[in-house]
Amino acid sequence: MWWTWSRVWTFGQRPAAIVGLVRCPTIRNCCLAWIIYGYATGVFSSRKLERATYDSVAFRFIAANEHPDHDTIAVFRRRFLPQIEALFVQVLGVAREMGVLKLGRVALDGTKIHANASRHSALSYECAGQIEAQLQAEVAGLMAKAEAVDQAEVPDGMQVPEELAQREKRLAAIARARATIEARAKERHAREQAEHDAKMAARAAKTASPGKKPGGHVPAPPAEGPLPTDQVNLTDEESRIMPVASGGLEQCYNAQAAVAAGVSGKGSVGNDGPVRGRRGIFTGNTIPLGPMALLDVQGVRVAVASRRVQCADPAFLEALGVDLASVRCLVVKSHGRFRGGFDEVFGPAQVVVVDVPGLTSPVLSRFAWKNLPRPVLPLDAEVTWI
């Protein structure tokens, strides 16, 4: 940092110009170091830089325990911005040579990831109350039938204890869902109430100022408690129903997708339209895959599509310009259905099936069975049956 400050004199600035701008010698010698260190740590505002000289040990060390006014920092940065930009590039170069910085390109964008849950499993707060009341009535009716089981016959096929257990289990699930919705509503109300209080405080301060009257309507306080339309998914309560780019609503997560310099997309290779299948289970069908692209990840070509469809037809890859006859190894995510699509390129002796972690597996012993009576075939093949 001190090296960068000494370099300011080489950019055609007279020492008298800088001395006249910043009177305090310590602050004059530290302004550039503050700005560059702030940029390197994500602090850009002159007000935040001023506040950091009180709150941050690193900034206090650089500032020698001085606290410049934010106007001084702003004027310094504005006046010497071209020199600061050139010096910042040199600082990054020095840091890279020292091995404390890795330079590259990272593309960051928001995206949505499909959750492992159906949007039809979502339950609103209003609907949960209705179902809960209905189940409570059914439980009361079953309890009455259990009391009268000795006096009257139970309808054929009805097992009162099992029916009761089933409904009580559903009641417990609905109670958990309602509790989750209520907790979210409480957090939302606390957040909205804080925002409302800040608006009212600003409005009151403006009213107290002479000659100033706040315009517009008085902000209404936030509603407390869950709304009838607040929802939670019974399968995955962390996911949400969201609109997707392909149209409609899906159960998804919000996410940030980052691509580093080592992952480059082939800009000239892409397909935004549907693909017509030509072999296997998709023969003759038009498959909407959404926007597609062919990426080059360290020499490995990766085909990506916006919609989840098993890669069971060579037309999916051919739409991206892939010549399968020249491919030495092809990896597809498909459960058996790929065989009829790619048999013209890879014969049965060339197919290797890999069982990876996921929703299901042909190896049943990999699952944690809870309610299955044991022993049972094929899980307990070594049991001697009598």
Name the descriptors.
386 residues, alpha+beta, 3 domains, 3-stranded antiparallel beta sheet, disordered N terminus
Q: Can you tell me about this structure?
A:
The protein is of the alpha+beta class. The chain folds into 3 domains: 2-98, no CATH class; 119-208; 262-365, no CATH class. The protein is built from 11 helices and 10 strands. The strands form 4 sheets. It has a 3-stranded antiparallel sheet with strand order 1-5-4, with no helix packed on it. Strands 6-9-10 form a 3-stranded antiparallel sheet, with no helix packed on it. The chain has a two-stranded antiparallel ribbon with strand order 2-3. Helix 4 (46-55) packs across helix 6 and helix 8 (125-147) packs antiparallel against helix 9 (160-208). The N and C termini lie far apart (83 Å). Residues 1-22 have low confidence and may be disordered.
